[in-house]
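To the wet lab folks,

You asked to see what we're planning to order before we commit. Fair enough. Below is the target structure as tokens, and below that is the sequence we designed to fit it. If anything looks off to you, flag it before the synthesis order goes out.
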């Protein structure tokens, strides 16, 4: 039994090992490079830190505390006023930029609209010219067709006249002049329905 107790005393407990590791400083944390320390800029000392002088009695402490509170309130009020002024200036600047942007958009829209109107007018003029040219071409074609139709009708009439004349000549040759009266009289008396 005494031997086991002796061994237990020699082996450190787990909590002791953890405590030892957690309390020992590490070299990486404790030894920061001097270049990092030199690059850091510290804030200027504030008047509030170490400004409290030990008062002699509670009344003096209350007065000193009231003075510090009033001073703090005054400084906060000034900072708020400055903040409000800055916010107002930013708002005015933003409004000015928005107005300038809107004006630029309006001018761009007007220019785009004017360009579109000019393009539409040019297209309308071109379209009218094309329509007029097409109309002239149609009128020319119609005139040509009418002239062709008249010539054709004239030729047809001439052919009919020639045919009738030829038929009249041929028919006059088929029936002799002496037989015309006889044939006419037969046709009147003995008519045959066709």
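Sequence we intend to order:
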């Amino acid at each position: 039994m005494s031997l086991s107790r002796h061994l237990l005393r020699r082996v450190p407990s787990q909590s002791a090992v953890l405590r030892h590791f957690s309390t020992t400083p590490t070299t990486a944390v404790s030894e920061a490079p001097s270049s990092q320390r030199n690059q850091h800029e510290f804030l200027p000392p504030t008047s509030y830190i170490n400004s409290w002088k030990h008062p002699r009695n509670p009344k003096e402490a209350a007065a000193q505390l009231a003075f510090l509170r009033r001073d703090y309130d005054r400084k906060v009020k000034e900072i708020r006023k400055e903040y409000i002024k800055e916010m107002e200036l930013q708002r005015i600047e933003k409004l000015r930029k928005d107005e300038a942007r809107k004006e630029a958009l309006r001018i761009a829209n007007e220019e785009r609209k004017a360009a579109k109107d000019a393009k539409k007018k040019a297209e309308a003029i071109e379209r009218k010219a094309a329509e007029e040219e097409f109309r002239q071409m149609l009128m020319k074609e119609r005139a040509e067709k009418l002239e062709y139709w008249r010539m054709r009708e004239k030729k047809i009439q001439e052919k009919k006249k020639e045919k009738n004349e030829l038929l009249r000549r041929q028919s006059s040759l088929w029936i002799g002049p002496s037989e015309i009266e006889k044939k006419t009289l037969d046709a009147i008396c003995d008519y045959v329905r066709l």
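Structural context that might help your review: The two ends are 160 Å apart (CA to CA). Residues 58-174 form the longest helix (117 residues).

Thanks,
Computational group
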